[in-house]
Amino acid sequence: MEKEELLDKAFIAAHDFELKSGGCAQSALAGIFEALGVEDEGVFRAATGMSDGVGLTGDGHCGAISGGAMAIGYFFGRSTADSGKIMKQVRACRLAKKLHDEFVEKYGACRCADLQCGLIGRFYNLYDPDEMKAATAAGMPEKCAALVGETARMAVRIILEERQRETQKKEETK
Questions:
Q1: What sign does the dihedral 125-126-129-131 (CA atoms) show?
Q2: pTM beyond 0.90
Q3: Main-chain dihedrals φ then ψ at residue 37, nearest 5 degrees
Q4: Angle at 26 (CA atoms; ends 21, 31), nearest 5 degrees
């Protein structure tokens, strides 16, 4: 599959998952994993509490970034065998920072509450049923789904580019 097709697949899968199920971190991760052919229920489950700025608080960064960073770590992260080697985490951190920086450049913020204000006019307490209805009426599901899809696309592009760099390095050392 061509790069653009994989990016579109990640966007569509993440977008549709977010509309169907909510959970921005899981939705981004689902789109990324679907595009890249990964099945890992444990990693998917681990993303559950990262929605809406961690635990539906709106106070942390967007869950889509969490899902993207988790996927980047899945492919390029430090293993438990390397846990005492601090520099082994630099690659994944550099790539996760790239995702963060691109996200902030596109959306102007990464904190969930700030994103809600920018996208739909104000922050909504999603634990309150009336607030949830108001958020839905304000267009939150579609706007968040588009953001989640775009974040999945960004993460897949970063992963594919890093894989390409990895392949080029190996070919150069032959």
A1: positive
A2: yes
A3: 75, 35
A4: 90
Condensed to tens digits (0 to 9), the pLDDT of residues 66-104 reads 999 999 999 999 988 888 888 888 999 999 999 999 999
> What is the reported pLDDT for 103?
98
From the list 44, 45, 42, 63, the residue with the least C-alpha distance to 54 is 63
Q: What is the 3-state secondary structure (H, E, C) of the chain?
A: CCHHHHHHHHHHHHHHHHHHHCCHHHHHHHHHHHHHCCCCHHHHHHCHHHCCCCCCCCCCECHHHHHHHHHHHHHHCCCHHHCCCHHHHHHHHHHHHHHHHHHHHHHCCCEHHHHHHHHHCCCCCCCCHHHHHHHHHCCHHHHHHHHHHHHHHHHHHHHHHHHHHHHHHHHHCC
The domain limits of the chain are: 3-172
**CA angle (18, 28, 81) in 5-degree steps:** 145
Q: How far apart are CA 153 and CA 92, in angstroms?
A: 17
**What is the mean predicted confidence (pLDDT) over 5-26?**
97
